[in-house]
Automatic annotation (TrEMBL):
PROSITE patterns: KH_TYPE_1. GO terms for molecular function: mRNA binding. This is K Homology domain-containing protein. It comes from Cloeon dipterum. The keyword Repeat applies. Residues 431-458, 573-600, 1115-1146 form a coiled coil. Residues 1195-1217 have a biased composition (Low complexity). Residues 91-159, 163-231, 236-304, 305-374, 379-446, 450-519, 524-592, 608-677, 682-751, 755-824, 828-913, 914-980, 992-1061, 1065-1134 form the K Homology domain. It comes from the Eukaryota. It is found in: Cytoplasm. It holds the Pfam family KH_Vigilin. CDD domains: KH-I_Vigilin_rpt1, KH-I_Vigilin_rpt10, KH-I_Vigilin_rpt11, KH-I_Vigilin_rpt12, KH-I_Vigilin_rpt13, KH-I_Vigilin_rpt14, KH-I_Vigilin_rpt15, KH-I_Vigilin_rpt2.
Length: 1217
């Protein structure tokens, strides 16, 4: 076994998987602000790094909040993962070093590999300026340790490439601190003296080599000095090891290694710390033997300079200890700057609080925290309630309204959680608040458990009406049944079930109410489809939607028209049955009243709409309509789109209504009657299949081919519509022999169409562009029309007039003929010129070419505008058609048929803007502009013109309007109409500005104004006037001003004078009443005095504190009422004065005597009778300590003269003590 063991050891193969452990101290951590570790981005970041690098990462958190990472994987993966971990979890620093530009390439290495390797090894990001950049600055970003390593390696590489002297010394790492000195003082001094660059590896780099680069002489001197220090320290250095617990190492090191540097500076002893990622606690001190004792004392002092202790506190009160935004903990530590308080993770059930800092400060902080914890535990508590999660949304309420209300009322914290399957509501706070909140929550849960839920099925088409505009209708229902929750499925939910939840009784009431609403909606949702010819839809809508809006307002029915791109001509009306029928009649009346001349836009010659009924037995309805309505739709399409309406199945009517243009109605009537006759004789049906693209050829242009077969056989041929699923089936209906004959002809034609041929024709190349323009729009139209024939024009750049056509023979021939017709039309086209100054082109074209597009479509012409030219002087000369030499930039070319070109030219000229001036007084300009230019902007948009008003500094009475002649004229009329309106308004304002003044005694003003302005407001409203009262103390205090129409001001004056006359009849009497009883007469909030004023119908005014006579009270009213009120006030005042006098007497007897009273009491009170208090405690004076009477001696003779002469000190309460 031993041999095998030895052999195995010798044969061991190195593993490709490595493991690296490293630590991120708490002070260098990047905080993700999560409540506990692992809940923030940490977990996700590690997973991302593992996915990117392939390394396995384990992460843990120590009690001191530092992070430890265990990374396992291939060497390169581990290094890459380490760099990424430190980037995300450790605070990043940045430094910049200058390296000569010529050495950058050596740092980069071949293909940048050396730089990448360096970044991996040091876990940093190194930015080297590009070659084109003259900068020699290299930026290194990463952790402090990584930056030190990177700087060292870069400087070593730079020094190696330097052409100056370069030395590499092997000096053991343990002697580097003696060479560098504390804070690098020695090495910096040496570099300053010799002018060389000395690179000593930082503590984190485990290398022995020291490099020196610079002038040869300086390098040699520096080498000699360094070796001298090394040899000296190697001889006299001794070591001592000391065990210090790992948690205290950071205090020995100090901030940025300052403590170690301090020990080295004072004692010359180097302190060697074990790596942070190892469990080793041993610290090694190296230096002169006689200094080791002092250094050891300093190490112990540094290690014990910070004390750590813990305070036990339940984890749930930690947040209260911390306080809002850390207020409580700040109050404890504000005078203890060196104390660090750390709270354990919330998952720690023991709830420890860790305190770290100087021993004295830690003790103070510990005492404060323990007091705070005891206080919080005594005043705070928590309760947990288990609640079914389905009740959470009801407890929380909409936008948290319920839970927030409970929190505010009870001043507690409520946390709702369903983590780990524990459906718990936790309440924290003061004991009373927690009890109240728990009771209310339990009541709410109990109520929810006893609630009822009902489903009501409502058709989805009623949802919009049920909810109402902006939810108003459903809001009314919810307010009416405020204890019920109504849930309506959302737009994406296809269910038709509305849920009602709440108390049983309320749910049932709400259910019945909802059923009633749905029933009303059903009654008001009668739907009727009215076919109206597509050409008449615009007249149904009216200008700006005026007609359709009027019908909707009058009938209160909803009217929906098909979109412009839809082929349907059916208008849908929804509402109550009578409203729907009324709307239908109004729409049909508009259609019947419309008479327009026949044009290419209408498929009928006369637009007089008629309606005719024919009698057809109901037994033939199904055969006439056909499968899927094919037959009846074919008849309607063939007869110009007439409407054929069959009576409902339950009406037992035999009247079929045909509606449309007179000739088309007659044609449809004849076909229907023929079909009825055919059905009575026979009803044979057959089907033929043909490719959908060949149907158009079978039908022929304007239906000529299919009509020929129908006329020759007497059978009806029905082609599939867009709604049919099978687009290839052609149905033939009629007598058996007619159907068979038509079928044979169709099959023969289809066979011919299926025979594909290829042919060519010649088309002048100048016309090729017309066919292929707009992505071959014309060619697509020809192909669709002639059975999908393929047409190939020569490619661009090939000079040829040969056009190839491929398809069925008849389709090819038809396409050829159509191309010839188009070429003939093109050759008959002319091009004319229209001269319009270039500056007007933009206006003529309109926004996005809207105007000119309308002209091209209306007159079937092509219009080409010239390229825009720039003018240096900014001015252009205007030219009229035929006058002088025309410039190319003004010439617009119109191509098309001669008569269309002339019309298009005139239409363009009509769009050329003109400028007209309108005389408008300058004072009206502001009113025409409107608020923020709104009115003038609306006018410009409405009439499509540009309006320029006078500049403010010129104040011209002219407004300029620029636009098309007709538009400018319309705008001018609008401006003149506005001016006329403004003149009328100004005249009206002048009439309303009539001012009337009248004199009224200021004492009457309050009565005229009335309580809270009620009287004067009524006068203002009744007469539409403005009434202004002067301020008190104004020189014209007696003048009231009335403004408005003259007639109205006079009427208002009469109303005011009527009040004044009534006030003049009143008398005013002043009575003197002791001011001490005024408050009792007035009563609380004036209730007593108001009662007197209402009882006697008088006005009573009490004096102000600043009045000369504070006892004078004024009474105003009718003479008799004033007398009665005066008598009542005097009687009350007399009663109140008795109470006042009694109170004064009582105060006189009970008030303590003053010193002056005692001094003059013997003489003044000799003749007075009554009870007199003497010797009371409040009359005792300060004792005289030198008095024998007050302080007699003990054991002496008290029978002397002094004793005999001592006066008696007894009083009503006995002898004085």
């Amino acid at each position: 076994m031993g041999q095998w063991s030895t052999t195995n050891n010798k044969m061991r193969v190195g593993s490709s998987v490595v493991t690296q452990v490293f630590r991120v101290p708490y002070e260098e951590r990047k905080m993700d602000m999560s409540e506990r570790f692992g809940e923030g981005d940490s977990k996700g970041i590690c997973q991302d790094i593992m996915g990117e690098t392939g390394a396995h990462i384990e992460i843990s958190q120590s009690k001191d909040q530092s992070l430890t990472f265990l990374v396992t994987g291939k060497q390169t993966a581990v290094l890459d993962a380490r760099r990424k971990i430190l980037t995300h979890f450790q605070t990043q620093a940045s430094t910049t070093i200058s390296i000569p530009k010529e050495y950058h390439r050596f740092i980069l290495g071949k293909g940048g590999n050396k730089l990448k390797e360096l970044e991996k090894n040091t876990a940093t990001k190194i930015s080297i300026p590009p070659t084109a950049d003259s900068s020699d600055k290299i930026v290194i970003t990463g952790t402090k340790e990584g930056i030190e390593k990177a700087v060292h390696e870069i400087r070593v590489t730079s020094d190696e490439q330097s052409k100056q002297a370069y030395e590499r010394l092997e000096v053991p790492k343990i002697y580097h601190p003696f060479i560098a000195g504390a804070h690098n003082e020695k090495v910096n001094a040496l570099m300053s003296e010799t002018g060389v660059r000395i690179n000593i590896p930082p503590l984190s780099v485990q290398k022995d080599e020291i490099t020196i680069a610079g002038e040869k002489e300086g390098v040699m001197l520096s080498k000699q000095r360094i070796l001298s220090v090394f040899n000296e320290m190697a001889k006299k250095c001794a070591t001592v090891s000391v065990e210090v617990i790992k948690s205290q190492h950071k205090y020995v090191i100090g901030p940025k290694g300052s403590s170690i540097a301090e020990i080295l500076q004072e004692t010359g002893v180097s302190v060697e710390m074990p790596p942070s990622d190892t469990p080793n606690d041993t610290i090694t001190l190296r230096g002169p033997q006689d200094k080791l004792g002092q250094a050891l004392s300093m190490v112990y002092l540094k290690a014990n300079s910070v004390r750590t202790t813990t305070v036990s506190a339940p984890a749930w009160i930690h947040k209260y200890i911390i306080g809002r935004k850390g207020a409580n903990i700040k109050q404890i530590t504000q005078d203890l700057p060196k104390v660090h308080v750390e709270f354990t993770d919330i998952t720690d059930k023991e709830g420890k609080i860790r305190i770290e800092g100087p021993p004295e400060e830690v003790e103070t902080a510990q005492k404060s925290l323990e007091d705070l914890v005891r206080n919080l535990i005594g005043t705070l508590t928590f309760e947990e309630i288990v609640v079914d999660p389905k009740f959470y949304k009801h407890i929380i309420g909409k936008a948290g309204v319920n839970i927030n209300r409970i929190k505010e009322e009870t001043n507690v914290i409520i946390n709702i959680s369903d983590n780990d399957g524990k459906n718990i509501i936790r309440i924290e706070g003061n004991k009373e608040g927690v009890a109240n909140a728990k009771r209310e929550l339990e009541e709410m849960v109990h109520k929810l458990e006893n609630e009822k839920e009902r489903d009501i099925i409502i058709d989805r088409r009623f949802y919009k009406s049920l909810i109402g505009s902006k939810g108003e209708r459903i809001r009314e229902v919810r307010e009416k049944f405020n204890q019920v929750q109504i849930t309506i499925p959302g737009p994406g939910d296809k269910r038709d079930v509305v849920k009602i939840r709440g108390a049983k009784e309320d749910v049932d009431k709400c259910y019945r109410h909802m059923q009633k609403l749905v029933k009303e909606l059903g009654e008001s949702s009668h739907v009727l489809e009215v076919p109206i010819y597509k050409q008449f839809h615009k007249y149904i809508i009216g200008k700006g939607g005026a007609n359709i809006r009027k019908i909707r307002d009058e009938t209160q029915a909803r009217i929906d028209l098909p979109g412009e791109g839809e082929k349907s001509d059916v208008i849908t009306i929804t509402g109550k049955k009578e409203s729907v029928e009324e709307a239908r009649d109004k729409i049909q009346k508009i259609q019947n009243d419309m008479v327009t001349a026949a044009s290419v836009s209408f498929p009928f010659e006369q637009a007089n709409i008629v309606s005719e009924d024919i009698t057809i037995p109901p037994k033939h309805y199904n055969s006439l309509i056909g499968a899927g309505g094919k037959l009846i739709h074919a008849i309607m399409d063939e007869c110009g789109g007439v409407t054929i309406k069959f009576p409902p199945t339950d009406s037992n009517s035999d009247k079929v209504t045909i509606r449309g243009p007179k000739d088309d109605v007659e044609k449809a009537k004849q076909q229907l009657l023929e079909l009825v006759t055919e059905r009575q004789l026979s009803g044979f049906t057959a089907e033929v299949r043909a490719k959908a693209q060949h149907h158009k050829f079978l039908i022929g242009r304007n239906g000529v081919n299919i009509k020929k077969i129908r006329d020759s056989t007497g059978a009806r041929i029905i082609f599939p519509t867009d709604k049919d699923e099978d687009k290839e089936v052609i149905t033939i209906v009629g007598k058996k022999d007619s159907v068979e004959k038509a079928k044979a002809e169709l099959e023969a034609t289809i066979k011919e169409i299926d025979n594909i041929v290829e042919s060519d024709m010649c088309v002048d190349p100048k016309h090729h562009r017309h066919f292929v323009a707009r992505r071959g729009e014309v060619l697509h139209q020809i192909a669709d029309q002639y059975g999908g024939v393929m047409i190939s024009f020569p490619r661009a750049g090939i000079t040829s007039d040969k056009v190839v056509l491929k398809g069925s023979k008849d389709c090819v021939e038809g396409a050829k003929q159509r191309i010839k017709e188009i070429v003939h039309d093109l050759e008959s086209m002319i091009t004319i010129e229209c001269i319009i100054p270039q500056k007007h082109h933009r206006t003529v074209m309109g926004a996005k070419g809207f105007k000119v597009q309308g002209i091209t479509q209306e007159f079937d012409v092509q219009i080409k505008f010239p390229e825009r030219e720039n003018f240096n002087n900014g001015e252009q000369e205007e030219h009229v058609n035929g006058d002088g030499a025309n410039r190319p930039c003004d010439t617009i070319r119109i191509t098309g048929k001669q008569e269309n070109c002339a019309k298009a030219k005139q239409a363009l000229l009509d769009l050329v803007p003109v400028t007209i001036e309108v005389s408008v007084p300058y004072e009206y300009h502001r009113s025409i502009i409107g608020q923020k230019g709104r009115d003038v902007r609306e006018m410009m948009e409405k009439y499509d013109v540009h309006i320029v008003l006078s500049p403010a500094d010129q104040k011209l009475d002219v407004i300029k309007i620029t636009g098309a002649p007709s538009a400018a004229a319309s705008a001018k009329e609008a401006v003149e109409e506005r001016c006329k309106q403004l003149e009328e308004d100004r005249a009206d304002r002048q009439l309303r500005s009539f001012e009337l003044k009248l004199e009224v005694d200021p004492d009457f003003h309050p009565k005229i104004i009335g309580k809270r302005g009620a009287v004067i407001t009524k006068i203002r409203q009744d007469h539409d006037v403005q009434i202004n009262f002067p301020k008190k103390g104004d020189p014209e205090e007696h003048i009231i001003t009335i403004t408005g129409y003259e007639k109205n001001t006079e009427a208002a004056k009469e109303d005011i004078m009527r009040i004044v006359n009534e006030l003049n009849k009143m008398v005013k009497e002043q009575v003197s009443i002791d001011h001490r009883v005024h408050a009792r007469l007035i009563g609380q909030r004036g209730r007593a005095i108001h009662k007197v004023m209402e009882l006697y119908n008088v006005d009573i005014k009490f004096p102000r504190s600043t009045d000369p006579d504070p006892s004078l009270v004024s009474i105003i009213g009718a003479e008799e009422n004033v007398a009665e009120a005066k008598e009542s006030l005097l009687n009350q005042a007399e009663e109140y004065m008795q109470d006042v006098n009694e109170q004064l007497e009582l105060e006189q007897y009970t008030r303590p005597s003053t010193r002056s009273d005692k001094e003059g009491g013997a003489g003044a009170g000799a003749g007075e009778t009554g009870f007199v208090v003497k010797g009371a405690p409040w009359e005792q004076s300060t004792p005289n300590t030198s008095s024998i009477e007050d302080f007699p001696s003990f054991g002496g003779d008290n029978s002397g003269p002094a004793a005999a002469a001592a006066p008696s000190t007894s009083g009503p309460w006995g002898p004085r003590r």
